[in-house]
Amino acid sequence: MTFAWLKGHGTENDFVLLPDHDGSVHGDLDPSFVAALCERRRGIGADGVLRVIRTSAIGLPSAGEWFMDYRNADGSISEMCGNGMRVFALHLVQEGLVDPSEPFVVGTRDGDKEISFRQAQGAEISVDMGVPQVQGVSKVSAAGNTWEAQDVRTGNPHAVAFVDRLGDAGTLLTQPEFDESVYPEGVNIEFVVREGERHVAMRVHERGSGETRSCGTGACAVAVATAVADGAERPITYRVDVPGGTVHVSWNADDHIVLTGPAQIVARGTMDWTA
Ligand SMILES: N[C@@H](CCC[C@H](N)C(=O)O)C(=O)O
After folding, report:
1. Residues 210, 70, 260, CA angle at the centre, nearest 5°?
2. Which of 21, 200, 231, 268 is 20 to 30 A from 90, comparing alpha carbons?
3. What are the chain's domains?
């Protein structure tokens, strides 16, 4: 099989994009193929795959023409990817597939997301991530430490733990422990420190991808958990530093969260693939 690919990242959360507009190139997008593409030594290397497909071809509900078919590095499906959405939106704009002069909608398994695009020194993209769900508190453990973690759903599941130092979570080479009765479908785990007023820093261990340099849905969960802990009134905006850069998260008066940050496409090519 020969197919086109692109490589992009949002605050160093990196993705292989697979243009497959009518779904005829990649069919059901086999999980082992996705995992092999994402493999950093034998494949292209990425935290996940973004298949660029028309909503009409994937057959899932959306009012948008384009659907972000997101897969984790291990081939598993997640409902939503915040950084991936910015990279996906940049690709649509660069290929002339959407008009960036006004907000446009992209479909995901977590529903439709509205994108606003600005070109300043680079692309700066805002994604309306919808209304977060703040749930209970459970425990997470890593590197011999245990913390309480706030359960926040931002399209996908997150456990947000406030720690003294980001290093307290250790290497994050293995999955931190979490309460499987709370997260039977697995969870993305964020470790957070406060850096100043409305300013936090985080690390993340992502479900299906391991430790990554950034997580957009995770940054949103962190901002929401921080606002809840602070008893902050909305609207409120947090700067969230991640190992790969900085994003900003606003929690607005209408309850919607908006994720804003950069995106870049860094390479493209074609690949001859033999299973
Ligand atoms: N990196 C993403 C989140 C990707 C999905 C996540 N690993 C999951 O399984 O839910 C982001 O930027 O939001």
Report:
1. 80
2. 200
3. 2-130+262-272 (3.10.310.10), 133-255 (3.10.310.10)
152 CA to centre of ligand 1 in angstroms: 13
Complete DSSP assignment for 165-186: -GGGGTT--SPPEE-TTT-TT-
Overall pTM > 0.90 = yes
- Interval 238-262: pLDDT, tens: 999 999 999 999 999 999 999 999 9
CA distances to 36, 148, 171, 235, 271 from 82, rounded to whole Å, are 23, 24, 24, 20, 27
The question of whether 220 is a catalytic residue gets the answer no
Distance 213 CA to ligand 1 centre (A): 11
ipTM tops 0.90: yes
In this structure, the residues whose C-beta lies within 6 A of any atom of ligand 1 are: 13, 48, 72, 78, 81-84, 156, 188, 206-209, 212, 215-217
Helices (H), the chain: 31-38, 55-58, 82-94, 216-230
Instruction: Decide if pLDDT at 275 tops 80.
Output: no
